Amino acid sequence: MSFTYFIADLHLSEDRPDITDCLKQFLATDAKKADALYVLGDLFEVWLGDDDVTPFNEDIAAAFKAQSEHCPVYFMHGNRDFAIRQTWLKKAGMTLLSEQTVVDLYGTPTLLTHGDELCTRDVAYQKFRKKSRSWWWPRLMLALPLWYRRRVARNGRAESKENQRHLRPEIMDVTPQEVINVMARFGVNQLIHGHTHRPAIHQLTVNNAPATRIVLGDWYDQGSVLVVTPDTIDLQSRSFQ
User: Fold this and answer.
1) DSSP 174
2) 27 with 62: CB under 8 angstroms?
């Protein structure tokens, strides 16, 4: 049977070994049988640069490298790990995708994206996103000492959490019209993304035709996995032990 897996928003960190264990179990069992595995961003809670070599990061790379021997593994940057570069991806056996990529998913052209660019009502975040994805800002940040990047990341995460406390829920979700605009621009009627942590399958209309938007869940409470076959789309969960 042919099937492809999609995951996103794992937010891996050393202080959540339950998430790491769930991922490793998934890679060691179900994922080995897939045609492909797509990781659509925010694999890590924070990524300071490929020079931040730790036993934890190396262990995750090894787990994905083993998976890549069974099927292709694709990675797309998220808003937490956009600083991942080819040094670590090579260790992990991953192929980097552009931030908006169309794939042929069993005969259906499907747009893949992390999803943060669709949340246009969060104006402050979109300004930061534009800066952080520029050619100069990542180079500048990665040129700074690692200890300083750690401090910037801690402060940034604290500020982000505080800001989110004051945002209305709909501001942190996608803008419906932006979804339609992006799908129309790429000429697709199927979209898969993460970021919002609101797993669901939405039906909509794009260019006067039925369309589907599939939202991946996060891994804070369970291992959210999307399984796509030539005939079915199924959002599943893997339990934490």
Assistant:
1) P
2) no
Which of 143, 158, 238 lies closest to 199 in space, CA to CA?
A: 238
**Contact assessment for residue 75 and residue 97, using Cβ atoms and an 8 Å cutoff:** yes
Distance from C-alpha of 105 to C-alpha of 95, rounded to nearest angstrom = 17
Structure confidence by residue, pLDDT tens digits, 168-180: 666 779 999 999 9
Residue with more model confidence, 125 or 99: 99
Domain total in the chain: 1
CA–CA distance, 206 with 26 (Å, rounded to integer): 35
CA distance linking residue 236 with residue 86, whole number of Å: 30
The pTM of this model reads 0.93
- By residue range, what is the domain housing residue 206? 4-238
Q: Assign residue 230 the CATH number of its domain.
A: 3.60.21.10
pLDDT tens for 175-206 read: 999 999 999 999 999 999 999 999 999 999 99
> Would you put residue 72 in left (φ > 0), alpha (ψ -120 to 50) or beta?
beta
Q: Are 116 and 129 in contact (CB under 8 A)?
A: yes
pLDDT tens, position by position, 72-96: 999 999 999 999 999 999 999 999 9
Let me know: does 225 contact 191? Beta carbons within 8 Å.
no
Determine the pLDDT at residue 205: 98
Residue 217 tokens read as 């869940």
Place of tokens 């942190």: 172
* DSSP-based helix, strand, coil % in the chain, nearest 5: 40, 25, 40
